[in-house]
Amino acid sequence: MSIQIPRGTQDILPGQSDIWQLIEQKARDLCKKYQYREIRTPIFEHTELFTRSVGDSTDIVQKEMYTFEDRGERSLTLRPEGTASAVRSFVENKMFGHANQPVKLYYMGPMFRYERPQAGRYRQFVQFGVEALGSADPAIDAEVISLAVMLYRELGLKSLKVVINSLGDKDSRKAHRDALVNHFQPRIGEFCADCQNRLRTNPLRILDCKQDRDHELMETAPSILDFLNEDSREYFLKVQKYLTDLGISFEVDANLVRGLDYYYHTAFEIMSEAEGFGAITTLCGGGRYNGLVQEIGGPETPGIGFALSIERLIAALEAEKVELPIAQGIDCYLVYLGDEAKDYTVGLLHELRAAGFSAERDYLDRKIKGQFKAADRSHAKFVAVLGDDELQTNKINLKNMETGEQTEISLDSLIDKLKELLN
Ligand code: HAM
Where are the transmembrane segments (predicted)? Predict the structure, then answer.
């Protein structure tokens, strides 16, 4: 039996990869406008980085990490997300000391989670994410959310919903935690084994449980918004004001708790509301993680960011039937006739490419008709036909494939002529 691709992964084939490149370029261009700069971190990190940051009691750490021991008996993990690595690098490279604050970073690359594969859920997926470290100004929360919204809008998505919540500061979270324990404790026996553990380790996670989500205590659970202290409430209102100023409509959802432990204050997700989009509608998730830098060994530094996967973005584009403007076709296809002409096109093709044109020729010894068919398949704008006779007289035949017009020009002028015509 032939070897197949691992479950939950996919090949991005030519054609499809054009769409990926366009999206990646849009993301990079947008980061340039918003002044986020790229950071590239390793695909694997010390396991402890993720247990400490993402959180011991999260599904990601408990069930989904690709963890292995290397030959030096170190426990390493394929990164399940990008924030922990960005923060680790921020601390390790002392970016908190840079003159330019806040430090605004972005990343794009594969992440790995051992999840049950289904539409929109892969075991290897590519995240584009940004992290702004060093500012506790609610304006940067709004900026981060707007960057994600802008990417989706610029690519042509319309059916989007922005959902926000506040998890409050440490004190608010503590008060809410106590209320959750009081709420669930008397009937915790009716919940799954995971939730029974969560009551002790991290009661907030109960609200995120997929198994117990229909239990009646879920609906009546105390809302974090009722436990926000004055500062947290003011912060949250400011974020909402700025989002409104930016023309971004949103819903507040007190049940949005996110699947990672490091959040304080703002948490948000962007969903697709497109008809026919799969069961998993979250396109993008993020929030504020004041406290994380300290957890990783750096000085107290506020931070906020988001991540979105290109896979789900493409699924949303498909659901909304958005056609991306993928440039098709090459500038010139060289057709040869005769052995000398054939040899000559090797050098000529190189010259065309060196002059900046996309160009191609036949490598399968096709007859002239077959070469023209190949030119058609490559959507060539021009076909240049060179026969042994033309070569003798320093001529070449240039055909405009759109108009069908043909002209004989001097071989030496081919590059100049193409420059003129393609401009
Ligand atoms: P997350 O919610 O775990 O957050 O993931 C963010 C996004 O990654 C999701 O909204 C989804 O688009 C995509 N994603 C997650 N898992 C999968 C999967 N199995 N297949 C396809 N796409 C997936 C984080 O990762 C945080 N680091 C976000 C963040 C950055 N918070 C602050 N800064």
Answer: none
Residues with CB under 6 A from ligand 1: 81-83, 113, 115, 120-122, 125, 127, 129, 131, 259-260, 282-287, 289, 305-309, 311-312
pLDDT at 210 over 90: no
What does the pLDDT look like over 363-390, one tens digit per residue?
Answer: 999 999 999 999 999 999 999 999 999 9
Residue nearest to atom 3 of ligand 1 (CA): 259
- Whether 351 has a binding-site annotation, put simply, is no
Atom of ligand 1 nearest to the CA of 127: 8
Burial 311-332 (b: 16+ CB within 10 A, else e): bbbbbbbebbeeeeeeeeebbb
- H helices of 251-334, where? 292-295, 310-319
Burial 143-175 (b: 16+ CB within 10 A, else e): bbbbbbbbbbeebebeebebbbbbbbbeebbeb
Backbone phi, psi, residue 338, to 5°: 105, 155
Distance 127 CA to ligand 1 centre (A): 7
> Count of residues for the chain?
423
Q: State both tokens at 208.
A: 């995120």
- Looking up tokens 């023209």 gives 372
State the distance from the centre of ligand 1 to the C-alpha of 128, rounded, in angstroms.
9
Q: In what order do the strands lie in the sheet with 303-309?
A: 37-38, 103-112, 124-133, 303-309, 282-288, 264-272, 160-166, 251-252
The domains located in the chain, with CATH, are 16-169+229-320 (3.30.930.10), 330-418 (3.40.50.800)
Q: Indicate left, alpha or beta for 265 from its phi (over 0: left) and psi (-120 to 50: alpha).
A: left
| DSSP for residue 118 | B
214 Cβ contact partners less than 8 Å away, ≥ 6 residues apart: none
Parallel/antiparallel/unpaired status of strands 44-46 and 103-112:
unpaired
